[in-house]
Amino acid sequence: MHGTKSFEYIVPRPYRPTAHVTDAMDHFAVVTYYTPDFFPFVAGLRADCERWGYRFYAEEATTNFADLINAFDYKVAFLQRAVRELGKVLWLDVECRIVRPIPTSWRGPLITAYTIGERRGLSSGVLLLDQQQDSFLSLWQKYAERYPRYPDDYILDFLTRRIDYPFHQVPLEFFDRSTSSPV
């Protein structure tokens, strides 16, 4: 169902990495999907990718999601398809902004972690993945389908703890653009 579309190449043609993009980053592609309500955010993320010289792929989700959790879970199959077609991908929720270059030290598999007050957790709003995570993505998809009442973040958090999957974690900043977080 999700594997029928190809990714639309959006930015820039031909791809020429800027000086801060090194071979260590393997020239990842920034990928996202959006629903019609979130289309206005595409322009901001596209502009960030143009500014920093990152390849950018955005896809409109034509599925009518029954609820928000279904929209979140759609991401898992989308990510697996992106990894299979593009190799190394940096998934960003479409409303994210890239405020400084992505550090060359970032290595996949990578996820963002947050702290709000006493709460700590993982956020799948930013993920760096490649083809080595294909079997993990299949497992994530399996559990997302088995437990449709839970959002993808909960299932991902459960899986990373249950099977001790070696995600690198970087801090996520939701609002303060003056922090060291690039996203």
Structure in words:
The chain is an alpha/beta fold. Helices cover 30% and strands 21% of the residues. The protein contains four helices and six strands; from the N terminus they run βαβαβββααβ. A six-stranded mixed beta sheet has the order 2-1-3-5-4-6, with helices on both faces. Helix 2 runs antiparallel to helix 3. The protein is globular. It starts with 28 loop residues before the first strand and ends in a 12-residue tail after the last strand. About 11% of the residues have low confidence.
Question: How are the SSEs ordered, and which strands pair?
Answer:
Layout: E1 29-34, H1 42-52, E2 55-60, H2 68-86, E3 89-92, E4 110-116, E5 119-129, H3 134-146, H4 152-162, E6 168-171
Parallel strand pairs: 1-2, 1-3, 4-6
Antiparallel strand pairs: 3-5, 4-5
List keywords for this structure.
183 residues; alpha/beta; six-stranded mixed beta sheet; 4 helices; 30% helix; 21% strand
Task: Describe this structure in a few short sentences.
It is built from four helices and six strands. The chain is α/β, with parallel strands linked by helices and 183 residues long. The model is unreliable at 6-25 (pLDDT under 50).
Radius of gyration: 16 Å
Number of helices: 4
Q: Roughly what fraction of the amino acids lie in strands?
A: 15-25%
Q: What class, by secondary structure content?
A: alpha/beta
Q: Shape from CA axes? A: globular
Number of strands: 6
The H-and-E topology, N to C, reads as: EHEHEEEHHE
Query: Segments where pLDDT lies below 50 for 5+ residues?
Result: 6-25
The amount of helix comes to 25-40%
Mean residue pLDDT: 82
Strand order of the largest sheet: 2-1-3-5-4-6
Q: Ends: how far apart? A: 31 Å
Strand count, sense and closure of the main sheet? Answer: 6 strands, mixed
